[in-house]
Amino acid sequence: MTLDASRTEPRPARPTAHEARQRLEHARNTRLTQLQALGTTGQTADDHLMSAQRDAIKRVLVEIDEAFARIADATYGTCLGCAKPIPPERLEILPYTRFCVGCQHRAA
Question: Per the domain annotation, does 9 fall within a domain?
Fold first, then answer.
């Protein structure tokens, strides 16, 4: 395949609610497994790195739950900053994202 051919291929469509739920379930299960693994490492609760990792995973789990709510109210895939569709490629990588790349940079 040449580079020119890849430019003419159609872009993937916005994920269906079913596809979005599957990606979110996978993301949730992955984070829960990570959280469980952190709990069985034998490290003490005073370990700041472990605590920071747990907190980050818990924040992502909250974002995943919020994404499920956006599916339910039919706003999933719409940027909360500019109200434009979030590119399907971004949703594939971060299925729980709330913002397009531009708005994410402005929010950070």
Answer: no
> Which range of residues forms the domain containing residue 72?
16-107
Structure tokens at 4: 């020119």
Q: Does the CA dihedral 10-16-18-23 come out positive or negative?
A: positive
Query: What is the structure's pLDDT at 44?
Result: 62
pLDDT at 12: 59
Distant-in-sequence, close-in-space partners of 14: CB < 8 Å, separation ≥ 6: 77, 85, 88, 91
Q: Could you tell me if residue 74 is left (phi over 0), alpha (psi between -120 and 50 degrees) or otherwise beta?
A: left
Which regions of the chain are under pLDDT 70? 1-12, 41-46
Q: What is the pLDDT of residue 1?
A: 43
Domain harbouring 25, CATH code:
1.20.120.910
